[in-house]
Design brief:
5-stranded mixed β-sheet, Alpha/beta knot, alpha/beta, 60s Ribosomal Protein L30, Chain: A, 10 helices, 2 domains
Length: 277
Amino acid sequence: MNIIPIDDPADTRLDPYRNLRHEDVLRRGPLFIAEGRLVVKRLLLSQYSTDSVLAEQLRLPELEPLVDNATPVYLVNQKLIADVAGFNFHRGLLACGKRLPFHPMETIDDHCVTNTEGHPPLALAALSLNDLENLGSLLRTAAALGIFNIVLNSQTADPLCRRVLRVSMGAALKMRFFDLADPIGWFEANKQSGNWQTIATTLAPDSIRLDEAALDKAFPGDQRKMIVMGNEGDGLPEAIQQACTIRVKIPMAPGIDSLNVAVAGAIALYEFTRGRR
């Protein structure tokens, strides 16, 4: 490995790792940070290039089979890494990855991940989600259920920011992201073409029960499906709901009107994937 000892906290090579508590969560800049042993290892094995690794001495043996000689490994002590990063939850290992551009939404038919068992593609659209833990949890659930096509608009938090990566246990690194620049325009055009069955999750009383919709013969399993989740506080805009193929709700006990978006998303994703397993 290309091991470079650093003992000066002001060394400019450490700049990407500074003050991580105040990280950018709006997808600006060419780099992102992976935190902790599991997420760093998944970065090193992923489609993303690694710009550098920041490690304590005791982590070097587990890095050796994963890091090539072109990637600098900055060797630091425990106090320095905590002082630079601004926290001490990294377990002695951080890494800096290089971003890949999101695919334009117009290319989703050409670039979406297809199921290896011959099923049509599935996608998750997370629109204007800004809670990092909710987004990370949704991405982890999607990966567990075999969904690797993720549609995001510009108001959605950065899926590669440190906390989302941590909560998703690195699952975000497996995803193919699509940039939905014009949400209403795309959903309205798709409603006309019928190219994707779009499933809006909502609290609207006139929506269809989720379990009934998942088994409805009007929505056959041989078509592309996209489960659409909205903002934690406001849900999906009415215009997008109306432009979707179907609106679904999760029936709940009297007096309970909603679920956390990550929990609701997990239930919806399970219902629409269980016939594939």
